[in-house]
Design brief:
Strand content: under 5%
Number of helices: 14
Structural class: mainly alpha
Helix content: over 70%
Order of helices and strands: HHHHHHHHHHHHHH
Shape: globular
Number of strands: 0
Oligomer: single chain
Length: about 400
């Protein structure tokens, strides 16, 4: 292992991280020229990128607020993800300012608190993808109970779990730790865990690799189940049809038996013993009749499940979200893991411009998500077009 100083550059803003030409990653001083001469490209593109993230997620949330038909059980997960991605975009404003002026614009108390909150929001956004996969997994393996137990209250509860878990983990891991150690974040708001190799590996594992493994396992099981379902679809329909027919036939037969018993009991009113036996049989028949009627009623409720169109739409949305997550996070996460193991491999082996690009790719996930919703949900596209056209008409008459 090399003895190169340990503090990783990933915790620093892009302008600091990639303008520093020394091999020693602990040096964070920026030449004065960076704070005096504004590089238009370096300032313009981060600002544009951040604005697009905020605008796209605001539009998605506005569409969900305007169109009630969009507020379905499945879309509550999308609303939650849009809120988290919006917060990611708002948090990027501080990074853009930091990049422009050359130092962290707030004091160290805000640095510590916002550091924990920022990690929690980003981690929550990643784990909401896991929650969506878990919900699709249950809808695939237990479609009837999944459909029957769906509710607004349940959706809100399930969507709150990533928030609670992320805050419970990241606030102690980042904020509390730094306050207890009285850690000096410096002028660039460097995180405490970056000075500890094990803590740094834990950071990237919880942030990306753990949700990635869970997403992979859940989607693999969903894929296998869908394959089996498609293969046995016709057979299952045949058996279901036979079961219903047999049930109705048995019910009709019992109805006939009940009438027969009733008629027989009338023809021999003086035979107490015979009548009592037959009345017992009538009671048993009525009991069975009631049981089968209840079965038919329950069967009618049981076949209620997601429509095929709703299922396809949910699966398409999930596919786009998962692909966006993996594509956006995988390159940077591999770089960070390698850096935690051996910093020299990254410091001397990968251009800083490439690291800058892959670092910003992680935030691209918050932009790709709302685009995914618009691609997979026609009603959302229609609502957005109506909102835009109304806004255009209102501006024209002002």
């Amino acid at each position: 292992m090399s003895t190169v100083a340990w503090t990783p550059s990933f915790t620093l803003p892009p302008a600091i991280e990639f303008e520093n030409n020394t091999e020693n990653e602990t040096q964070t001083d920026i030449p004065v020229v960076l704070s005096n001469v504004v590089n238009i490209n370096r300032l313009f593109w981060p600002m544009l990128f951040t604005t697009l993230i905020i605008a796209a997620n605001c539009l998605s949330l506005a569409a969900f607020g305007v169109e009630k038909r969009l507020r379905t059980y499945n879309n509550y997960f999308i609303i939650n993800l849009s809120i988290l991605d919006l917060l990611v975009g708002l948090n990027l404003i501080i990074t853009v300012v930091h990049t422009h002026i050359g130092y962290y614009p707030l004091n160290q108390v805000f640095c510590k608190i916002l550091g924990g909150l920022g990690q929690a929001v980003t981690s929550s956004s990643n784990f909401v993808v896991v929650i969506i996969c878990a919900d699709r997994h249950r809808a695939t393996y237990d479609p009837i109970n999944h459909y029957m137990t769906r509710s607004k209250r349940k959706a809100i509860f399930v969507n709150s779990l990533p928030w609670i878990a992320a805050l419970a983990f990241w606030m102690p891991f980042v904020t509390v730790w730094e306050f207890i150690d009285d850690f000096d974040n410096g002028r660039h708001c460097v995180r405490r865990f970056t000075h500890n190799p094990l803590a740094y590996v834990v950071n990237i594992t919880v942030m990306f690799y753990l949700p990635l493994v869970l997403i992979f396992v859940l989607n693999l099981r969903i894929f296998r189940k869908i394959q089996k379902t498609v293969g046995g679809k016709n057979v299952r329909k045949t058996f279901q049809g036979n079961d219903v027919a047999n049930t109705i036939g048995n019910t009709s037969a019992m109805g006939g038996n009940m009438r027969e018993f009733s008629t027989s009991s009338i023809t021999a009113p003086n035979d107490i013993h015979v009548d009592s036996v037959k009345m017992k049989r009538v009671s048993m028949s009525l009991s069975k009749m009631h049981g089968h009627n209840k079965f038919l009623k329950d069967f009618g409720h049981a076949v209620k499940r997601e429509s095929a169109a709703e299922t396809r739409k949910a699966q398409r949305t999930l596919l786009f979200i998962v692909l966006s997550f993996v594509i956006s996070w995988l390159p940077h996460s591999i770089i960070r893991l390698i850096y935690a193991i051996e910093p020299v491999l990254i410091v001397s082996g990968l251009p800083r411009s490439a690291r800058l690009f892959f670092s910003w790719m992680t935030f691209g996930n918050s932009l790709l998500n709302p685009i995914s919703y618009a691609i997979t949900q026609p009603l959302l596209r229609t609502t957005l077009r109506k909102m835009m056209s109304r806004r255009a008409v209102a501006d024209r008459f002002q």
